[in-house]
Amino acid sequence: MPDPGLRRLHRGKVREMFELDADRLLMVATDRLSAFDVVFPQGIPGKGRVLTQLSALWFGATRHIVANHLVSDDLGGLGLPGDVRRLLEGRSLVVRRARRIDVECVVRGYLAGSGWKEYQASGTVCGIPLPAGLRLSSRLPEPIFTPALKNDRGHDENVPEAEVRRRLGDAVTDFIKEKSLALYRYAAGVAEKAGMILADTKFEFGFVGDEIVLIDEAFTPDSSRYWPADRYREGEPVDSLDKQPVRDWAERTGWNKQPPAPELPGELIEETARRYADVLDRLRKVLAETAAGAGGGRR
Question: What range(s) does the SAICAR synthetase/ADE2 N-terminal domain occupy (predicted)?
């Protein structure tokens, strides 16, 4: 990634954050890919642009539900050198500086992944009792809020909602839970119009002053499990439109899921890039129409 000549505040597995001034940051999404919390040696071409463009569209479309940190996706006026600006455009957002709430707000609408494994063992998902008789990929009676404590160095830790309330208090917990469920329900309806099922997703929130806003990314293939609606079958695994081919390949290799990650085959990189682009293509028109109907503009 090119050096924008700004002070770097954070380098995550995928995103890098740079300081613009006391109130604004530049959030850059790279093409890096991580799975099992390990970054792979090769990136996925175009991935950062997909993440950025989807987040910008979703931030615009969900502003009526909750405020967010997006200022602009226009890098003009930042004083970046021309060659740097050209490389960063399309993969960078100017955002408000926020104090992160260290809880990952996960909402699940379908039974998949670790939730399915837990349900088979105990009839619960993250400790929440569910009706008997559900199958793999079953739609849940209602979406459920299953928070996790943020861990920047490894796996986030699933915790009961009561633990979040103990740490954050009832007012903050009620707010992030209510907004997470409202965001999921809204986005699930949008995804349906685009021919997809939003099986689950996760959010981050932060404080800008005394206001809680949505931060980081929104409904990208990195933070959400999208299923093609025409391939959905209850009781069967559904091939999601994200980095699932990389996870499946890595499992087959016998890799121990510790650094360093193995080299990815070229055809696997191409297939993963196609899936990310497919999600953007499916959602772009629907989201643009939705954002326009909600009033458009930037907050």
Answer: 9-260
Query: From CA 130, how far away is CA 274, in angstroms rounded?
Result: 35
Domains and CATH numbers, the chain: 7-96 (3.30.200.20), 99-244 (3.30.470.20)
Maximal C-alpha separation, the chain: 60
204-233 average pLDDT score: 98
297: confidence class by pLDDT, cuts 50, 70, 90: very low
Question: Residue 136: how many CB atoms within 10 A of its CB?
Answer: 18
Share of residues in the chain with pLDDT > 70 (%): 95
Measured from the Cβ of residue 235, the count of other Cβ atoms closer than 10 Å reads 9
Say what the pLDDT of residue 291 is: 59
For residue 203, the surrounding DSSP H or E stretch is strand 196-208
Mean pLDDT of 109-116: 96
- Asked whether the beta carbons of 274 and 240 are under 8 A apart, the reply is no
**CA atoms of 4 and 85, how far apart (whole Å):** 8
CA distance 127 to 158: 9
Question: Tokens for 34?
Answer: 């991580």
Residue 3, exposed/middle/buried by CB under 10 A (0-12, 13-18, 19+)? exposed
3-state secondary structure of 240: coil
State the chain's mean pLDDT as an integer: 94
User: Concatenated DSSP letters for 125-193?
Assistant: ETTEE--TT--TTPEEEEEEE--EE--TTS--EE--HHHHHHHH-HHHHHHHHHHHHHHHHHHHHHHHH
DSSP reduced 3-state for 52 = helix
Q: Residue 276 and residue 253: Cα distance in Å, rounded?
A: 23
DSSP state of 42: S
H-type alpha helices, 229-265: 244-253
* pLDDT at residue 4, as a whole number: 83
